[in-house]
Amino acid sequence: MTNLLIEGTTIVKLEDQETKVLVVRTGFYSFKGQLIRSILFPSSQNFQFFVDGYKLSLFVALVSLIAYLSTVPAFIFTSLPEKIIIFRFFEIIVNSFPPGIPLLILQSIFFSFAKLKKKQILGSDISQAIQAGRVTTICFDKTGTLTENEVDFIGFQQPYSQHVDNENYNRELSCILFKLLSICHQAYEINGTFIGDPIDVKILQFSGWKVQYDVIRNQRFSQYKNERVYCLQVNEFHSECQSMSVIVEDLADQNSKYVFVKGSPESILQKLDHQTDKQQIEYQLNILISQGFRVLAAGYKKVPNREFQNILSLNRSEQEQGISFLCFLIFKNRLKKKTQEITNELNNADYNLKVVSGDNPFTIYNVARDCKLLKSPDKNLLIIDKCNKTKDYFTITEVQKEGLQNVKIFKAENSYEILIQQIKYCTEVYSKGINLCLTGTAQHFLENYKSQSMYSQKTTISFKHIGSLQNNTFDQRLDLFYNFLIRYCQIFARTSPIQKANIIKQLKLNGEIVCMVGDGANDCQAIKEADLGISFTNSDGQFSALFISKNKEIDCVKEILLEGRITLSVASESIKGYIQILALRYFYYCYNILSNDIINL
């Protein structure tokens, strides 16, 4: 019996006593491989504080040399022995570089780590402790960071329906909807314990079906009473596809074959057949997301038996095309208890706060507004998206607080002129306090145009600079606009793990000291890329974070930043005091050294 296990598969039970495993592919290009690569080969960190320390040391050495050379003629004039003249040089060096300063800084760092440990926060690199005091920008993941990792499954909404059906709904569990919910997921039930993604677990529990494994057929199946649905093929969830799908066989329906698909509403809408009223579905979706719900969509298509072998040979995108819309799956994320308090304090402390997530922009906007993370919570949201792949300009939508949407229309002779109008419009509305949101598709569009040289140099962005682009080329305008959005957008939606890391990288190139707070495997690259990475225990993000909190609340961010500020303050004040004493010492030393030597003669 031979099985192919995809990367990340968890083996929960073995039927045979002996099992031989052959690794057919490995490397750093898989999802888990990218995580390992980011840990083994991290990007260069910002050591500006230590660089400034080395510059100060060189400056002190130069001043010491000048002070010594200025006294050498007097030494020679007074006929001092050469041995005493040399000893005087080493005496100046010893007095210029007191060993107490580095010891005092290290002692402050160790005390900070000890205080954090008492608060159940563990640090792994003392050389980066001072970085916490220099942070200017903080990026948060949403699910599991700002909100609870667990979600509440509110229910589902079918097409052309205005109400949400929940567990109180008088449902027929044998219908096609509950067959999809029972098998299109990656959750398992073992000895009464559910294992898997929290959303998948909620879906499985809601379905009322049981998931088991058929040893004879070597296939997973779901069962309700005498009905069975066998899973023949699984296309696992991927951040680029934003969906997962399964090909199943329904024994109760004359062994009919189906393709079940579940994923983000945007990805499902692109896979629907031409007969579906997409405008009505989008209207329902807008109502749900305007209420702050986290929404997934589900669809299916029936495969005739004569076409079954053909569909197995197709690639994933072809298998999932032409499906019928089934329902919206509605979830609600609860904010963590201290999220609102901490984000409000960080905002008052003038930190630049951002939410970088793979969720829907409307859901992130509601969460950011609820936790008072936005600098202008009373203003509307401007979403910069790239919905139409055939046109080289953005789709810009303004969302009001009440959930009403207004798609901005731009007219010009060509796509180039439309794009220039959109850039000008976005910069103007931001100056009026409108909140900006950049989606992953728009970010991908901009990154494709971004010149390579821009990654290797810092770019200063200002409204005047953005506004005066008349003499710049088209690519230069997009480069500047990309930097502008990365700097001033507070919401980044539908971002992939690589895009999260690119956001952190660009912020650093623009001169920001960046802290990334996340918990999932999709945050690991961004956490490792940041100057300061914070995660939580029992999460995938802990493997690449500098600080790990045993407490799931984000008050750990506040504690780490405070200790960093204290350490940085102690180091800075120690150096300032040393410079002041050093200046007085030089004046006294130059005067005293001559008078003492003359008296001794």
From TrEMBL:
Transmembrane segments: 56-80, 92-114
Main location: membrane
UniProtKB keywords: ATP-binding, Magnesium, Membrane, Metal-binding, Nucleotide-binding, Phosphoprotein, Translocase, Transmembrane, Transmembrane helix
Membrane-protein topology: Multi-pass membrane protein
Entry-linked InterPro entries: ATPase_P-typ_cyto_dom_N, ATPase_P-typ_P_site, ATPase_P-typ_TM_dom_sf, HAD-like_sf, HAD_sf, P-type_TPase_V, P_typ_ATPase, P_typ_ATPase_HD_dom
GO cellular component: membrane
Keyword Membrane recorded: yes
Any Pfam family matching the protein: Hydrolase
Coiled coil: none
One MF term in the entry's GO annotations: ATPase-coupled monoatomic cation transmembrane transporter activity
NCBIfam families from the UniProt entry: ATPase_P-type
Protein name stated in the entry: ATPase, P-type (Transporting), HAD superfamily, protein
The species this protein was found in: Tetrahymena thermophila (strain SB210)
